[in-house]
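Thread: Modeling a multi-component assembly for a lab meeting

Hi all, long-time lurker, first post. My supervisor asked me to bring a structural picture of a complex we are working on to next week's group meeting, and I have zero experience with this. I have the sequence lines for every component (573 residues in total). Could someone generate the structure of the whole assembly? Inputs are pasted exactly as I received them:
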Amino acid sequence: MPVSLKVKIANLVLKNPVTVASGTFGYGEEFAEYFDISKLGAVTVKSLTLKPRLGNTPPRIVETPAGMLNAIGLQNVGIERYIKEKLPFLREKGCTIIANIYGTTIEEYCSLAQILEKENGADAIEINLSCPNVHDARAQSKCPLIAQSPEWVEKYTSSVREKTSLPLIVKLTPNVTSIIEPALSAEKGGADAVSLVNTFLGMSIDAQTRRPKLKNIVGGLSGPCIKPIALRMVWEVSRAVKIPVIGMGGICNAEDAIEFLIAGARMIAVGSYNFRDPYAPVRVLEGIERYCVDNGIEDINELIGSLIIEE
Amino acid sequence: MKLYDCIVSSHNEVAPGYFRLVLKDKELAELSQPGQFIMLEVTNTYEPFLRRPMSIERIFSDSISILYKVVGKGTKLLSTISIGEIINVQGPLGNSFPIDPNVKEYLLVGGGIGIAPFPALAEKIIRTHGGNIQVIIGAKNHPQVLCERDFREMGCKVYVATEDGSYGEKGLVTDILENLNINSPVTVYTCGPIRMIKKVHQICEQRDWVCYASLEANMACGIGVCLGCVVPVKFVVENEMMARVCKEGPIFDTRVIQWEKI
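Re: Modeling a multi-component assembly
Sure thing. I ran the full set together rather than chain by chain. Output:
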């Protein structure tokens, strides 16, 4: 009996629950030299903005214990070149595409969503309300990140919701007291799913020179060091909302991924570990399938949210 | 591009704190070009988390070598690996040194561990184009002078500069470069600390010499997706961009680098 790995987000059926975290997989081209990227449930592309962005001044990354800090600053080719130069490749490969978008205003998010829908540029849209390395949100929401304000999360989500019929995912930040609040706001605003977590704000200092190791001073922490916190947040959110949760944060192997599925994630994303092992997403996928076979699970949905808590 | 499980066929401390590691894999060796680099997995744990980028030093028929300096936990761990052990290698990555067949004078300028990519380049020039190769090696002191004998055995003319004057000329590689007179067209290749590269670039610009630099950067993926290793450049086709050291580089014509932004 073959295992069914199919999962659903809104009306979109994904062939399996494995995707990649935005910004760790480019637009797929580089990884296609290593494996057939259409095997993944979806390819989540690097954040897209209306105009190309140069990103932050280097140094932009620094290694930390069991992880890394980054302050890339959303360097990307912009929506126009994505449609012209990156999209045809992903379509030709037969990938299901989750397009991550970032705007400095509500209107920019709306325009990006409309362009993507019109150009068949995505099968789902993930709105990035949680990049820790750009400083555009402060003026509007009084928070460094939109995703830190439940009120603004709802406002942004509902605005984009009005403009697109594509499945809408809201990416949340873990840099909050309670991640349940913004998750509920996203749901109320009409999101079809929430994805969490984005990176944790962190910092690294060179003790010899007394200078920050990142030019941006602070950056986003990712890698296996954040996994237990991300897992806890995915568990909390998936109990609180009715919409699917896409779980991510330090997933390096199938066992990590399975923990997130058991905690309640309907999909999982491999992030920074793609930098270490370009085959990571496909190894995770194969491992999940093997686990299901070994444990007599016929449908992956049986596993999702199956955490056993003894009284 | 693939991942290769390479067998360590040789591993020596060639100078205090500097090691030469020979990695055996026929396909990797056949694909490698001078100037390219590899990403080494120094542990099968998550500490350190990322691979380590290393310039290819020499290319043999069924193996490649790297030359590295112990600077942190990754290279320290690497230095403990024994002959016969297996290391996972991603590569070869990045672009390679361009060689203009019309030029017959080549100048290789390496500071410290920056000499690492040049033995392979010198061998390729000798094998495919011929011409005169002059090498300027810079080091803090005599024990840290790397690859001098290798270059001499290849027939290169070698100059050495040491900061403490314990060997060769006292001073920096750029002091020697400034006093060098070459009247025919020359291509300069350089690698080392960024301030040294900048100075080499300035000297070359004054003399209208083409100069290619191999750049170093903090790097997570090595394949162009993390965008961590960028350097500001100005190509003719694009007004301004952040070029990836791992993908558009590591070799750059020094005239395209926006030096004022570094």
